Amino acid sequence: MQTTEQTTQTGFTLIELMIAVAIVALLAAIAVPNYYEYVERARRSDATTGITKIGAELERCYTQFSAYNDAGCTFGFVSNGVPGNVTYANLVAGIASEEGDYDLTIAAGAGGATQTYQLTATATAAGSQANDDTCDTFTLTHVGLKGSTPAPAAGADNPCW
Q1: 22, 53, 120, 161 — which has fewest CB within 10 A?
Q2: 0.85 exceeded by the pTM?
């Protein structure tokens, strides 16, 4: 009497492997752009935090000296990872944000540099936020008015702040 042994096949077929690769590629095609968008939105906090901190320091200066641009008004700020002191003149020339993704500047408003200001954070051309088309710039005024470019639709919440 003759017996036959049954052999079992191990491994994957080419079709099974191609299906697995297609599934991974599909998941990557969805996940990677969403991840980059999330990182882009998270980096916007570098701009909003920077101009909010500077705005608070300018208000402190106004309380002390009755002017935003007083020569005695100097405050500490981390610019591009380096701690240092900032004056109104430094802001007119422009300084880097804490992470270096934005340039922070100040401009005098209608009442002049002693009574009003508008802080602006603009993405640096060579920085990681250069391709952020949703929120190119951020602004903050002496009355706390927050804005961004491009501006949101009328009545809509500002997605940048």
Answers
A1: 22
A2: no
Give whole-number Cα distances, 70 to 52, 59, 83, 89, 110, in Å.
Answer: 19, 12, 21, 10, 17
Which string of DSSP letters, residue by residue, matches 120-135? Answer: EEEE-TTSTTTT--S-
pLDDT in tens, 73-127: 899 999 988 999 999 999 999 999 999 999 999 998 777 778 899 999 999 988 8
Strand positions, DSSP E, 4-149: 75-79, 82-86, 95-96, 102-107, 118-123, 137-141, 146-149
DSSP letter at 113? T
Neighbour count for residue 50 (Cβ, 10 Å):
26
